[in-house]
Amino acid sequence: MAEAFSLQKVLETFRSCLSEEKEVYIKYYLAGWQELVSFMNTLGNVFSFISKDVVSKVQILENLLTGENGSHYVTVQSMVKYELENNLVDITKRGNHIESGCRTLLRLHRALRWLELFLDSLRTSKEDDKTSVMCCDAYNESLAQHHPWLIRKAVGVAFCAIPGRDTFFQVMNAGDETQVVALLGESLPLISEVYQITEDLYAKNNLLELP
Ligand SMILES: CCCCCCCC/C=C\CCCCCCCC(=O)N[C@@H](COP(=O)(O)O)[C@H](O)/C=C/CCCCCCCCCCCCC
């Protein structure tokens, strides 16, 4: 039987993500996403179009990591260097490299910002606050800016099926509410640091708008 989701495991994967030199290990980054997908899979079919998209992007990056050029895909930094130096990225319009590592990771990177905003809302929320509103606000501030109308509408429908705050606190499998809030407080700086390092790297290389 599959192991239950736990926030602690997500925290550990993001903790393992950063090397001493503050490079981001792709292997652990993907492990973090796999853990989050396992959580989303418990929420029902209405979320399956979202988890399928994440799974396919994780798979693209895993294939690169385990493929013949895998040594260049150990960290986000080495991937960016390798793909740019070898013209493996479609920079302004889609061409021959629609499954480049840089482009694929950028989609997950934007979603990481959503996660950061959502978890922070959850951490500071009050008993009567609605998770659908937290989720939607986090989405509008992050991913929505990169999604076309049709996707935004489908995501809006999925938000209506989001479980309530109590359920979220339970499925995080991290004890009572105070303990979950404390663990979120510990996890968020790690997620933020991984996000910011990637954001700065992509900004420096003009990769934030890859098609
Ligand atoms: C207790 C833990 C707390 C929460 C755990 C949540 C688990 C979340 C897991 C995944 C979150 C969503 C990840 C979404 C990745 C989207 C990547 C993307 O932007 N893809 C689009 C662009 O790709 P290309 O076409 O350019 O290749 C793609 O078009 C979009 C597809 C589907 C829409 C994704 C919307 C995501 C909205 C975020 C809300 C998630 C709700 C989760 C409910 C908890």
What does the main sheet amount to? none
- Beta strands, count: 0
Series of H and E elements: HHHHHHHHH
CATH class: Mainly Alpha
The ligands found in this model are: the ligand CCCCCCCC/C=C\CCCCCCCC(=O)N[C@@H](COP(=O)(O)O)[C@H](O)/C=C/CCCCCCCCCCCCC
Arithmetic mean of pLDDT? 94
- β-strand percent reads under 5%
Overall helicity: 55-70%
Going by CATH, the homologous superfamily would be Glycolipid transfer protein
* Fold-level CATH name: Glycolipid transfer protein, GLTP
Identify low-pLDDT runs: none
Number of helical elements: 9
Domain Glycolipid transfer protein: 26-173
Subcellular location: Cell membrane; Cytoplasm, Cytosol; Endosome membrane; Golgi apparatus, trans-Golgi network membrane
Keywords: Cell membrane, Cytoplasm, Endosome, Golgi apparatus, Lipid transport, Lipid-binding, Membrane, Nucleus, Transport
Organism: Triplophysa tibetana
Explain what you see.
- It contains 9 helices and no strands.
- The chain has 211 residues and is mainly alpha-helical.
- It has one domain: Glycolipid transfer protein, GLTP, CATH 1.10.3520.10.
- The protein starts with 6 loop residues before the first helix and ends in a 7-residue tail after the last helix.
- Bound molecules: ligand LTTT4AJV.
- Keywords: Cell membrane, Cytoplasm, Endosome, Golgi apparatus, Lipid transport, Lipid-binding, Membrane, Nucleus, Transport.
- This is Ceramide-1-phosphate transfer protein.
- One of its GO terms (molecular function) is ceramide 1-phosphate transfer activity.
- It is a peripheral membrane protein.
